[in-house]
Amino acid sequence: MTITVGTYNVRGMKDDVAALARVIRAMSPDVLCVQEAPRLLCWRRRRMELAESAGMRVAAGGRLGGVAILLAPGVRLLHSESHVLKIFLGLEIRAVAIAVVEVEGARFAVASIHLDLDEAARLHHATEAVAMIEQVAARFDAAIVLAGDINEQDDKTTWRYIAARLSDCYPRAPRGNGLTFRAARPDRRIDAIFATQGLQVAWCGGADADPADLVAATDHLPVVARLVRA
Question: Domains of the chain by range and CATH?
Answer without folding.
Answer: 2-228 (3.60.10.10)
